[in-house]
């Protein structure tokens, strides 16, 4: 088979699996698991084959036009360069892990068939985005991911949190998608094509008339999809979905689509210095703010969600300084270790029966209950904190190195963008290590009553953790090979940023450790912790209960009033605001939700009280008239005849009068 | 000798007026029918008189009169049969007592009926 055929099959197989799963899943329960796992695994194998054949060399391009559109043609096009080939492998790996993990995590869930089919459909859409060489086809995958995310976040739709979160995720990402669509049209209008290759060729010739406008419009969609400030608010709430969904969609793939899109069209963005500075500021605010917020969260998954936002900030930062190699490198390593973090967190939530770090910190021996999750999560947290020699160190240093490169004026990107990204990146490195340490200490080094024993975790779940631990450990080794797949720029860590970044990370970790030692005595005095009591249930059931009970138990979905939290000590007065995501939701409520609701009330008033009055009046007047006329209907035929005669006489007289007057 | 047209015309008008009065004012159904006959005969008189006055060679007026007489006979037959049936049913043939088609007070639209009337309109809104 040619590489093109293989590449077409990669998105197609999970799609067919999803269709078959939706059609037959409920009727033939035995088929559900094979239909969920096998197409994704095959797609992974094919993606690996495509990557091997492509080999970082010349991009594979193929296109077929289904039907003439009359103006700018829309083609089914493939454009597989080194970026696409590697990202597709990442998507395949994470999706396969998630599908296998879900067979254990949601093994008793009655909605598992539709869940697995939606995950397959999602995987197929993401692969379509990765391979597509036509922006309209890419948009199709982009939007399918949006709707799949909506359904999967709302998987536990019995809980109000999940319902609200799914709607929020959908609306906020759509808010970005509208300008995104307009931006795509503007881009096509300027370049005369939706094909990536054609667009890039035109941009290289300087054929772009409105680069800043187009770049900013596209950035809105990217901010929505990749959860960048100010459209990031949906991602922490999306943690109301099952953990495998968080791992797949909200850590490794869908949120990476925005970054990947910018990487693919980076020359378009690079033509506008203003757009790059905007991107840099967006990335900086995202990195710093999300790291502070992550330090204050109580829900283990919300910590990871804010951490995802921050790591995506690193990627957009790398793009802002014009180095897409570093951005995609961080995308790949982050995809692996963040998926691992989420899947391990799912195991922990299952065992602990709670998603609250405050409750976990009052449990003794949680790490002995789940040694697999403990060790793999430690690896992943070290990677997240960018401690050498784990994968996160290399990719994050590549980003910081690129920023330093730009700051010293050695890159095409504006120097300002370089400085913004560098400073924010270093600050975020400190905070990242701090919240990673806090999570690790609170989750695994609790003191108090013995952790509940839920027996052994399914092999499907623990094996996947070790599979993902391998790239988290060793992906950094590829740092010498990767430039051949990307643009060729070196990704090797530079000495200055490495020392700075690692030093700051170590400081963050040590300070957090000190704070934890200081506060841990308090924990024994303040008993806390609500634990979901369903020892027999699968992970999904326990998690749904944990999510539903967090607000009743602690008064808030994000934080718990735990004085023994080291984050509270470290952040001081900022903690209150950081826990609430810096009140951005409240700002949006005041700015958008309330005005819209007020407008809706006004329209309702106008409709009911003003328009309807006319409608009712139009009905009432004829009714009264009818009542008056009905009185004449006495039933006496002679009366009718008399009236008829009188009318005839009047008409006759009138006719005569008119005739004589006219004469 | 020729009778002047005015005499039969005035006579016909008077006859017609008497008929109209009878139809509108009499209570007895049989008298109403007789009044109708008077009106028809007034018309017949006019037809014959004008036929002569206009010297119509085809005598269409006279021919039409014959038709009118025949139809009047049929009409009075049916009319009397109806009056008879009404009388047998009700024991009276007074016209002003036959008020079954009158708008009765019970059929006035009351507020309780409005929700039932509102439902179809709501449904129409929903499907619109």
TrEMBL record, chain A:
Transmembrane segments: 6-24, 36-56, 76-100, 112-131, 137-157, 169-188, 208-224, 245-263, 269-296, 303-321, 327-352, 373-391, 411-437, 458-482, 494-516, 640-661
Occurrences of domain NADH:quinone oxidoreductase/Mrp antiporter transmembrane (ranges): 132-406
Domain NADH-Ubiquinone oxidoreductase (complex I) chain 5 N-terminal stretches: 68-115
Keywords on record: Membrane, Transmembrane, Transmembrane helix
Subcellular location: Endomembrane system; Membrane
Domain of life: Bacteria
UniProt main location, coarse: membrane
One matching Pfam family: Proton_antipo_M
Membrane topology: Multi-pass membrane protein
NCBIfam families per record: NDH_I_L
Name this polypeptide is given: NADH dehydrogenase
From TrEMBL, chain B:
This protein's GO CC annotations: NADH dehydrogenase complex; plasma membrane
Membrane-protein topology: Multi-pass membrane protein
Reactions it catalyzes: a quinone + NADH + 5 H(+)(in) = a quinol + NAD(+) + 4 H(+)(out)
The entry's keywords: Cell membrane, Membrane, NAD, Oxidoreductase, Quinone, Translocase, Transmembrane, Transmembrane helix, Transport
Record has Oxidoreductase as a keyword: yes
EC number, UniProt record: 7.1.1.-
An example Gene Ontology molecular-function term: NADH dehydrogenase (quinone) (non-electrogenic) activity
Tagged with keyword Acetylation: no
Region (Disordered): 98-128
EC category: translocase
InterPro entries given in the database record: NADH_UbQ_OxRdtase_chain4L/K, NUOK/Mnh_C1-like
One BP annotation, GO: ATP synthesis coupled electron transport
Residues passing through the membrane, by range: 6-24, 31-54, 66-87
Compartments in which it is found: Cell membrane; Membrane
Family membership noted in the UniProt record: Belongs to the complex I subunit 4L family.
Role, per record: NDH-1 shuttles electrons from NADH, via FMN and iron-sulfur (Fe-S) centers, to quinones in the respiratory chain. The immediate electron acceptor for the enzyme in this species is believed to be a menaquinone. Couples the redox reaction to proton translocation (for every two electrons transferred, four hydrogen ions are translocated across the cytoplasmic membrane), and thus conserves the redox energy in a proton gradient.
Subunit details: NDH-1 is composed of 14 different subunits. Subunits NuoA, H, J, K, L, M, N constitute the membrane sector of the complex.
Name the record gives this protein: NADH-quinone oxidoreductase subunit K
Lineage: Bacteria, Bacillati, Actinomycetota, Actinomycetes, Kitasatosporales
Gene behind this protein: nuoK
């Amino acid at each position: 088979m040619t590489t093109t055929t293989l590449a077409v099959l990669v998105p197609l197989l999970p799609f067919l699996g999803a269709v078959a799963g939706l059609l037959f899943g409920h009727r033939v329960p035995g088929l559900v698991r094979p239909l969920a796992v096998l197409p994704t695994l095959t797609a992974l194998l094919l993606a690996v084959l495509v990557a091997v054949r492509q080999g970082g060399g010349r991009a594979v391009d193929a296109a077929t036009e289904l039907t003439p559109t009359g103006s700018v043609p829309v083609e089914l096009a493939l454009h597989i360069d080194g970026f696409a080939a590697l990202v597709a492998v990442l998507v395949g790996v994470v999706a396969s892990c998630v599908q296998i993990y879900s067979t254990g995590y949601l093994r008793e869930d009655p909605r598992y068939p539709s869940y697995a089919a939606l995950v397959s459909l999602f995987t197929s859409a993401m692969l379509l985005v990765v391979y597509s060489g036509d922006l309209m086809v890419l948009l199709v995958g982009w939007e399918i991911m949006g709707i799949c995310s909506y359904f999967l976040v709302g998987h536990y739709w019995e809980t109000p949190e999940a319902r609200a979160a799914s709607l929020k995720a959908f609306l906020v990402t759509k808010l970005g998608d509208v300008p995104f669509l307009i931006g795509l049209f503007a881009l096509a209008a300027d370049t005369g094509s939706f094909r990536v290759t054609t667009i890039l060729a035109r941009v290289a010739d300087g054929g772009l008339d409105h680069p800043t406008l187009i770049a900013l419009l596209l950035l809105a969609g990217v901010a929505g999809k990749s959860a960048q400030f100010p459209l990031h608010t949906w991602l922490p709430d999306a943690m109301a979905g099952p953990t495998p969904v968080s791992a797949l969609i909200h850590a490794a793939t869908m949120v990476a689509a925005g970054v990947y899109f910018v990487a693919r069209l980076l020359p378009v963005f690079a033509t506008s210095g203003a757009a790059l500075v905007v991107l840099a500021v967006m990335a900086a605010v995202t990195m710093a703010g999300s790291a502070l917020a992550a330090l204050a969260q109580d829900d283990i998954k919300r910590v990871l969600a804010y951490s995802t936002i921050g790591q995506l900030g690193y990627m957009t930062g790398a793009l802002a300084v014009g180095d897409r190699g570093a951005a995609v490198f961080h995308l790949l390593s982050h995809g692996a270790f963040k998926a691992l973090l989420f899947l391990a967190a799912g195991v922990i939530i299952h065992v602990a029966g709670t998603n609250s770090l405050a409750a976990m910190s009052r449990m003794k021996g949680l790490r002995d209950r789940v040694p697999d999750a403990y060790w793999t999560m430690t690896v992943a947290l070290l990677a997240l904190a960018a401690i050498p020699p784990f994968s996160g160190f290399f990719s994050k240093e590549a980003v910081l190195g690129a920023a330093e490169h730009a700051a010293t004026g050695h890159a095409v990107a504006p120097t300002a963008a370089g400085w913004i990204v560098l400073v924010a990146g270093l600050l975020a490195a400190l905070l990242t290590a701090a919240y990673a340490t806090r999570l690790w200490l609170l989750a695994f080094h609790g003191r108090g009553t013995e952790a509940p024993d839920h027996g052994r975790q399914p092999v499907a779940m623990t094996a996947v953790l070790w599979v993902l631990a391998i790239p988290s450990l060793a992906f950094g080794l590829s740092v010498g090979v990767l430039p051949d797949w990307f643009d060729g720029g070196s990704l090797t860590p530079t000495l200055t940023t490495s020392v700075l970044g690692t030093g700051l990370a170590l400081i963050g970790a040590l300070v957090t450790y000190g704070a934890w030692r200081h506060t841990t005595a308090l924990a024994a005095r303040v008993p806390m912790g609500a634990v979901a009591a369903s020892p027999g249930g699968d992970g999904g059931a326990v998690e749904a209960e944990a999510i539903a009970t967090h607000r009743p138990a602690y008064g808030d979905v994000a934080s718990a009033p735990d004085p023994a939290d080291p984050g509270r000590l470290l952040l001081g007065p900022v903690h209150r605001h950081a826990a609430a995501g810096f009140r951005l939701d409240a700002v949006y409520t005041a700015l958008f939700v309330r005005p819209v609701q007020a407008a809706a009330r006004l329209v309702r008033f106008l409709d009911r009280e003003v328009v309807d009055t006319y409608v009712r009046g139009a009905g009432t007047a004829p009714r009264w008239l009818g009542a008056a006329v009905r009185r004449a209907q006495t039933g006496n035929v002679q009366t009718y005849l008399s009236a008829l005669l009188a009318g005839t006489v009047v008409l006759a007289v009138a006719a005569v009068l008119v005739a004589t007057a006219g004469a | 000798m020729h009778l002047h047209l005015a005499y039969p015309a005035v006579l016909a008008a008077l006859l017609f007026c008497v008929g109209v009065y009878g139809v509108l004012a009499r209570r007895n159904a049989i008298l109403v029918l007789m009044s109708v006959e008077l009106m028809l005969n007034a018309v017949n008189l006019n037809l014959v008189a004008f036929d002569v006055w206009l010297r119509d060679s085809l005598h269409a007026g006279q021919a039409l009169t014959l038709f009118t007489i025949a139809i009047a006979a049929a009409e009075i037959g049916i009319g009397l049969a109806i009056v008879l049936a009404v009388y047998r049913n009700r024991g009276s043939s007074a016209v002003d007592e036959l008020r079954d088609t009158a708008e009765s007070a019970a059929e006035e639209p009351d507020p309780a009926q409005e929700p039932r009337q509102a439902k179809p309109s709501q449904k129409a809104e929903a499907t619109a």
